[in-house]
Amino acid sequence: MLNPQVKLRVPVSRSDHAQGPRDAPLTLVEYGDYECPYCGQAYQIVKAIQEALGDDLRFVFRNFPLAQIHPNAMNAACAAEAAALQGKFWDMHDALYENQDSLDPQSLLAYAAELGLDLDRFAQDMVSTRVEERIVSDLEGGARSGVNGTPTFFINGFRYDGDWSYDSLLYTLQSLRQRPPEDIGREDDRPVWR
Hints:
By secondary structure, this protein is an alpha+beta fold.
């Protein structure tokens, strides 16, 4: 269910990592941690939902590494952002989630090599202030939006507090596909709203 009381405080912009059309009727934003096992499960679910909804969905990923409980999460986020500077964010994003048990520094360099990245530049970018600032910006934006765990999803600007299983998330998205934007947050008898 969507929570009309909790809004995404940092609107989606061109600087976000996004897949799908900018004018898609549905925007799913995930705040995620590459080492979080729940995010690993959600990764597969989101992929399947993207396949099911096609061009009706824009998916946005924002970093929310929980470094205090996941010791490799920050380095993994840095790897994704360093890859982004060479145009390979989504390739690295996928490699990280598909190899969650191997997020040590040597593995991150191996993924960069497999993706054909310039390894010297990748290593420099991983420790750059530009990459650090990007991740801190995502973390701060998530905190301002009430994110305190991962994965946290927002649909069309409102936090999704329901079960994020494939069926539940897909049902909510499909229910909203035909709903006009001005109805967001309005109380009614539809099952996807509180």
